[in-house]
Amino acid sequence: MVDLSVDLAGITLKNPLILASGIMGVSASSLKYVEENGAGAVTLKSIGPKDREGHHNPTVFAWGEGVANSVGLSNPGVEVALAMIKESMDRLSVPLIVSIFADKAENFVRVADKIMPLKPLVIEVNLSCPNTEDEFGKMFSLDLGAAERVVSMVRTVCDRSTKIFAKLTPEATDFTTIGKAVENAGADGITAINTVLSSIIDPYMGCPILNNKIGGISGRAIKPVGIEAVYNLYKTVKVPIIGTGGITTGEDAIEYIMAGATALGVGSAIYYRGIDVFQKIAKEMKDFMEKMGYKTITEMRGMAHRS
Amino acid sequence: MRYDKPKVVSIKKIIEENSRVKSFLFDLEIQAKPGQFVMVWIPGYDEKPFGVILKDGAGLMITVAAVGRSTKALHQMKAGNLIGIRGAYGSHFHLPSEAKSIALVAGGYGMVPLAYLAQEARKKNINVELFLGARTQKELLFASWMKEIGVKLHLSTDDGSVGHHGFVTEPFAEYVKNKQTDQVYVVGPEIMEYKVAQICYKKQVPFEVSVERYMKCGLGICGQCCVDNTGWRMCVEGPIINGEDLKKIIEFGKYHRTASGKVEYFPWVKKTKN
Ligand SMILES: Cc1cc2nc3c(=O)[nH]c(=O)nc-3n(C[C@H](O)[C@H](O)[C@H](O)COP(=O)(O)OP(=O)(O)OC[C@H]3O[C@@H](n4cnc5c(N)ncnc54)[C@H](O)[C@@H]3O)c2cc1C
Ligand SMILES: Cc1cc2nc3c(=O)[nH]c(=O)nc-3n(C[C@H](O)[C@H](O)[C@H](O)COP(=O)(O)O)c2cc1C
Ligand code: FES
After folding, report:
1. Ligand 3 centroid to A276 CA: how many Å?
2. What is the average pLDDT across B132-152?
3. How big is the CA angle at B110 (ends B140 and B205), to the nearest 5 degrees?
4. Does B132 lie in the same domain as B194?
5. Which residues pair with B3 in a beta bridge?
6. Residue B261, ligand 1, Cβ within 6 A
7. Residue B68 class from Cβ within 10 Å (0-12 exposed, 13-18 middle, 19+ buried)?
8. B121 and B190 share a domain?
9. Residue A140: pLDDT over 90
10. pLDDT on residue B274
11. CATH number, residue B115
12. Which residues of A are catalytic?
């Protein structure tokens, strides 16, 4: 019998497949629906300091190998979201990860502080959304100092029992250094990767399709980018990694585990294979492990580093 | 054929249905069943969901009421102008295999998916009783088209300019009291859909309804259109929902979510939850 359960920074997941932030997770009901379809944990769409409508449509479309989005961090704001987080905790039986974002380090702290009374298991600090920038007009996780500062400041308002994950972009030239820095600043784990900056132009219309002109690519197209990020990060940090980006099949999931991931974020695959993609990937992972004679996820973790 | 990246096409023809509503026709190969919708990219403005019709002899058609910024921009466009189309998306209406007679209840642009359904039902020789309501006679959408294909019309207007003077739900309620109908289909303002649903539950008539929620992706990933308490996506599991499943959508007739994801109660509901 193969066992898909994993220990993620002290939290037991029945399987390593986690709903990635911004996909489905906008309400307790939508998270519950994903849980019913086999996810081992679920992440809320990033919550910010205040109500945000996001960008105008087109905000999401799909092209063959990937999904393009510039949803623009629409969210009802932390005050309103509190009731939704509470309802999610009450209704879910799998762990909930609460993702947060802000425009300034101080506002990350404000958002985290508001959520803390609910005692979340995990806060994921989204430092890597292409749709927000820090004070200097840059994504937080492109800037070592800014990334470090946000994590250490959020750490000061969080109880030790709440784990902090930092979500990073692979676009930073010193990506692994930033990984090391957020680990030193107190992150209990790292989520990599977010979407990859991109634009798609319609040649007939003669303009970008996304109303925001640029956005992030997710889905199969970015899997090799995510694998590289996790592979190098695993060599640099000790904290667990949630490998994310293009995971669509059981074999994709195994690839990330072998690169060094402890758990796996799944998002766009819902588009490719339906809401029950979590059940499908879990089954494919089991089939693979049975065929290859693996019994646990742990024995495969980081395997690609052996030679 | 379904498009998930906007397919850019030129507008073949524009028909002015009335002072507030225009139909747009396109040459585009697309698969679409009654009740499904397309996402229409109005460049420089937005991308919005509209019900789809594959009209016999005319092809792909959308029919749009000018209500806000982007629908007004669409109304300004001319034949030959380019727009983008994705889809068709969502669930569709079902005609019971042995159906002899069905009833449609339509309000406003809700007539769009129902007209397509009526066309398909008439091809199968099913009797179609249409309860169509509008503010005034001129705004009764597709009345002559429906008559041509042998649909039985029961008209209502708010101003009494033709047919029943009042809500479309009233003659419908009278009808289901006395007449046998295999299935009811309702699309319109949610308050009207809600009333029709209550009538159908009471009379134990099976029905299908279109539950419209704010749409972004249409692909089932952004979560924007998820309903309480099931979490179903109205762009995948909806918009067409049958009466039994509708009982599980506790927000129906009560509230919906805005583009930010915030819960907003319909004006006719007293606010009880946030
Ligand atoms: C499944 C579905 C089918 C529809 N079919 C038709 C149709 O056949 N003909 C027609 O005229 N209209 C249809 N609509 C409504 C149409 O999408 C809105 O009228 C249009 O989006 C308004 O845009 P606007 O910029 O003109 O106005 P806005 O001022 O932006 O919006 C006016 C109202 O339209 C609704 N709306 C706006 N954006 C969206 C969105 N992205 N998704 C859902 N609702 C939105 C909201 O209720 C809003 O309050 C349909 C909606 C849905 C969900
Ligand atoms: C529509 C959409 C919205 C997203 N919103 C967020 C978000 O709010 N916060 C965040 O950290 N990541 C967000 N992401 C990124 C995903 O969490 C994930 O990192 C990325 O999509 C790669 O995984 P995938 O290929 O499995 O989708 C979003 C992605 C998509 C497609
Ligand atoms: S519109 Fe995105 S999930 Fe339905």
Report:
1. 16
2. 95
3. 110
4. yes
5. B87
6. no
7. exposed
8. yes
9. no
10. 45
11. 3.40.50.80
12. 129
